[in-house]
Amino acid sequence: MGSCDIQQYVECYYARLIWSVVPLFLLLFGTFGNVFNMIILVRRRMRNLSTSVYLLGLSAGDLTFLWTAMFPRALVQGYSVDIQVKSRYLCKFFTLFTGISAGFSVWVLVLMTVERWLLTRWPVLARVKLTRRTSTAATITALLLCVAFNAHLIDSADIRSVTVNQSVDNNTGLELECTYVDGNSMF
Question: Which of 3, 23, 31, 128 is the most exposed, having the fewest neighbouring CB atoms within 10 Å of its CB?
Answer without folding.
Answer: 128
